[in-house]
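ok trying this again, last paste got cut off
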Amino acid sequence: MTFSLPEKKTVPEHQADAVLSQDNPVSETWYTVLNTTKNVRLLSLYANITWAVTQPTPLEVRVTIDGQTETFSVSNPVSGTDYVGVLGYASASYLINTLAEQRSRAFLLEGRSVKVEARITWATTQPTPLVCRVKYAKY
């Protein structure tokens, strides 16, 4: 008896990380981390902001999945701290800086069309890097 694999991919293939490292980010400007990509499973995301003088608030990562958006955010981020994406309790979603509070999941989100962006808000632009990394796989 001969078996053959289906032509359609049934197991997502891991991709190279999508990374944003934006020096001097402009307040309230969304920067693309992962441009619109088809058939994506988001495995994880993390964001980090280091500032010189003025503390930014909030740090946000916006994920657009099949036309709907989820915004992960943290108010008053601590300079140089890594924040990881965690699905919130009830319907809220947010970034949180402790891995202990993550729920056990094989992946964060998935969809037929996915885009990831990051931004920071503050009064003045200053020399600070905004960093965001997305680990993902494609079907």
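PB: full thing came through this time. The CA atoms of residues 38 and 113 lie 5 Å apart.
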